[in-house]
Hints:
Elements: H1 2-28, E1 31-34, E2 37-40, E3 43-51, E4 56-59, E5 66-73, E6 82-85, E7 96-101, E8 107-109, E9 111-113, E10 123-124, E11 128-131, E12 134-139, E13 142-144, E14 147-151, E15 157-163, E16 172-178
Antiparallel strand pairs: 1-5, 2-3, 2-16, 3-4, 3-5, 4-15, 5-6, 6-7, 7-9, 7-10, 8-15, 11-12, 12-13, 14-15, 14-16
Amino acid sequence: MFFSKLINLLPLLAAVGGATAAKRDIAANTGSNITVYAYGTGISGLPVYAGTDGLAYVSTNPSSDMKPVNWTLARGGQVPWNVTLGSSNSTSTSAIQFYIVTTADAFEPVGFLNSTSTAPDGAVTTGFTTYGSNVMYIDGSTYTSQFWAMSTTETGVWEIMWNESGADQAGSVPVALRTVGPPTIN
């Protein structure tokens, strides 16, 4: 009898333990100096870079026109996500904000706005959060992730897009943006 009660309690104990782990996971994915990675078909945990054109890219072999991005992430969507560009040796000091374009049926590039750039029509710089390690946009009471990677003319380089409708787009694949990098093999 005692054994059967213990067996019935095990799923409950596992759920409570899992909830605690999820809470820690969410908290670990906010703060500064975070790298965001893209995962999708043919894209296995590539870091997001900022192009000199202010747009977001992932690449298997980034060019000198692409700068690493260090993110400052906040939960809840109330404040913009700021980034610094460069490496640990050289970073930008001006405020740069992450944006997406959310107009109806938009399939538009994702990018970064500095103090001298003009936001595209329909761009938003707030509403972002993490759900576990996934980057999400809060649309009312719905969490969405409509990031896609569109191939460019350069081999191994994709432009990150926001696909408001989620409809298939030629030359692109859906990707998850995450705060967890790919495993390293020693």
